[in-house]
Structures are given as C-alpha cells and as structure tokens.
UniProtKB/TrEMBL annotation:
Superkingdom to which the source organism belongs: Bacteria
Keyword Transport attached: yes
Subunit structure: The complex is composed of six subunits: RnfA, RnfB, RnfC, RnfD, RnfE and RnfG.
Any Pfam family: NQR2_RnfD_RnfE
The family this protein is said to belong to: Belongs to the NqrB/RnfD family.
Chain positions with FMN phosphoryl threonine modification: 154
Bilayer-crossing regions: 23-42, 48-67, 96-114, 121-139, 176-200, 207-227, 233-252, 264-282
Organism lineage: Bacteria, Bacillati, Bacillota, Clostridia, Eubacteriales
Annotated HAMAP family: RsxD_RnfD (MF_00462)
Entry keywords, A to Z: Cell membrane, Electron transport, Flavoprotein, FMN, Membrane, Phosphoprotein, Translocase, Transmembrane, Transmembrane helix, Transport
The protein's name in its UniProt record: Ion-translocating oxidoreductase complex subunit D
Recorded topology in the membrane: Multi-pass membrane protein
Cross-referenced PANTHER family: ELECTRON TRANSPORT COMPLEX PROTEIN RNFD, ION-TRANSLOCATING OXIDOREDUCTASE COMPLEX SUBUNIT D
Location(s), subcellular: Cell membrane
Gene symbol of the encoding locus: rnfD
C-alpha cells in the first residue's frame, strides 16, 4: 500500500482562491457604476481625467519596478484602482498635467517608496488628493455643475456659507442621483451604493466601516442641522461630498484599516466624527479625505490595543 504523503507547514492553514488581482478586479467592477455616472454627468472632461490618472499610475508603477529591478506589479490591477480613485477625487476641470503629477506622486511617493502594495501607511488616492489640493488649491476647488456645465459651488460650500450670496442647495433627489457639482466620482450616491452592494456580495469588504462611518456623519449632521434641512440634514450630509466614496472605497482599504471588527468600528466612528468636525468648524467645506488620512495613522495603535482572538486558547493576545 502506497504511503499517504502529507505536507507540513506553519499556520495559517485556511486558504481561498482570492488574489490581489481578483480583489482589485472586483473593486474595479464596483467602481464602474460611479465611472459611468461621472462620464454621463461630466462628459469628455471626465473621460480624459480618468484615462490620464489610470495610465499615469500604471506607467509610474511599471517604471519604478523597472528602475528598482523588482518584479512588475502593475499587472495586479492595484495601480488601476489607485488611478480610478484618484480621478474620482478631483474635479473634471482639473488640467491633465496636474492629474499626471498627482498620479506620479500617489504611486511613487505614497505607495512604492514605502514598499509597494500592502506597505503604504495612508491611502494613496487620498494622499494624492491632499497633495494636489495643497499644490493647486484654485484648480482643485473649481467645480462644474453637471446640469448646465457652468462653474459653481458645491452643496458643501453652500452649507459652509463660503458661496457669495448663499446659493441654492440642490434637492436630496438631485444629490442622490448625482446632479450636483463636485469631484468626478463622488456626486452620484446611487452609483456608489450599487458598488457597495457588489463589494458586500463578493465579500471583498464587510459592512462595518462604511455603515459606522456614514452613520456617525448622519447622526452628527442631524445634530448640527446645517442648511435648515430639518430631519433630513443628516442624510443630506452623507449624500453630498466625498464621504460615501471615501467610506465605501477608501476607508475600507485593507492595508490602512484595522484588522478586527471592533477596531474597524472604532476607526470608522472616529473618522466620521473628524469629518463632521472639519465640515462644521474647519476652514475647508469637506472633511472626508483628511478624516480618513488622519485615522490611517492611528491604525497601528488601534491594532495594538484591539487584538484578535488567538485560536485554540480562548484568550485575546
């Protein structure tokens, strides 16, 4: 009788067929509704910005791998996702050369210099947005109204009171569909929710971070009650700006979010709190990007004190 051969290896022993490429492919599919919505509302400008960001991010990673004589990781699709998310976080009117500079910074400085995928300490796309906002503040705060193509204020700027003459707030229905000024990928809450449902279905992410992040903003938005919106103030806060895009697609980044469910809830609640504090009391109308970036830096601390259970011991180590 032939002897049975066993392979002995160290833990963990639970494996599945997921890979970086398959996960990134699912994220790209989840981003398609928002991509289509952005192109529908902002037309050719959105197409050019998206293509410029994606191509620049992929080429930046390819060139980095070539220069450093590392394995080419551009084929794992993570650079494509980074490019899409960066494009989603800028206005459609942003000059293409600025998009290219932001893409190079995002991939080379924020991702590759820290060791590549899985090693970055903050979300690359949000760091790229923050870099562009600091470098080119006028271009990054020039908004196009998708209804008539004119330059105008975003709903958050109107709520903040920085729009001369006050301005007219779009309706909740317009904000839900995407007929508001803003960044390419953040305007249509409907498209982002479709992507969220797909990620949950594919089990790429769990509901904890998005629900607690958006829920915290909704509760605080109701308490603050900006814009004389009454009971709908909290819902309006999560429909406009980048919180839905950030909460679903960037706060949930594996590398820069906590490992445990409890840690993720703490992270999401604190990030939501920071976002609304910045919106309400800060000098900038939007607080999503900075709230997530700040909490990215606290993830190691959260993981240190909120630890997963060690299998087989009944103890938390």
């Amino acid at each position: 009788m032939a002897e049975t051969m066993f392979t002995v290896s160290s833990s963990p022993h639970i494996r599945d067929n997921s890979s970086v490429q398959s996960i990134m492919r699912d994220v790209i599919i989840a981003l398609l509704p928002a991509t289509i919505a952005g192109i529908y509302f902002f037309k050719l400008k959105a197409v050019l910005v998206i293509l410029a960001a994606v191509i620049s991010c992929v080429l930046s990673e390819m060139v980095w791998c070539k220069l450093t004589k590392q394995q080419d990781t551009s084929k794992d699709l993570s650079a494509v996702v980074t490019g899409l998310l960066l494009a989603f976080n800028v206005p459609p009117s942003l000059p293409i050369w600025m998009v290219v500079i932001g893409s190079i910074f995002t991939v080379i400085i924020v991702k590759c210099l820290f060791g590549g995928i899985g090693q970055n300490i903050v979300n690359p796309a949000l760091a790229g947005r923050a870099f562009l906002l600091a470098s080119y503040p006028v271009a990054m705060t020039t908004w196009t109204n998708p209804v008539d193509g004119a330059t105008g204020a975003t709903p958050l700027a109107i709520l903040k009171g920085v729009e001369a003459g006050g301005g007219q707030l779009p309706s909740l229905a317009q904000a839900f569909i995407g007929q508001v000024g803003g960044c390419i990928g953040e305007t249509s809450a409907l498209a982002l929710l479709i992507g969220f449902a797909y990620l949950l279905y594919r089990r790429v992410i769990t509901w904890h971070i998005p629900v607690f992040y958006l829920g915290t903003i909704a509760v605080l938005g109701t308490i603050f009650g900006r814009g004389n919106l009454g009971a709908s103030a909290g819902i309006y806060e999560i429909m406009v700006g980048g919180v839905m895009l950030g909460g679903i697609f960037m706060a949930t980044d594996y590398t820069t979010s906590p490992m445990t469910k409890k840690g993720q809830i703490i992270y999401a609640v604190l990030a939501g709190f920071l976002a609304m504090i910045i919106r309400r009391f800060g000098g900038y109308p939007e607080g999503c990007s900075y709230s997530i970036l700040i909490m990215n830096l606290f993830v190691p601390l959260i993981d240190k004190y909120v630890k997963p259970r060690v299998f087989g011991t009944g103890e938390v180590k």
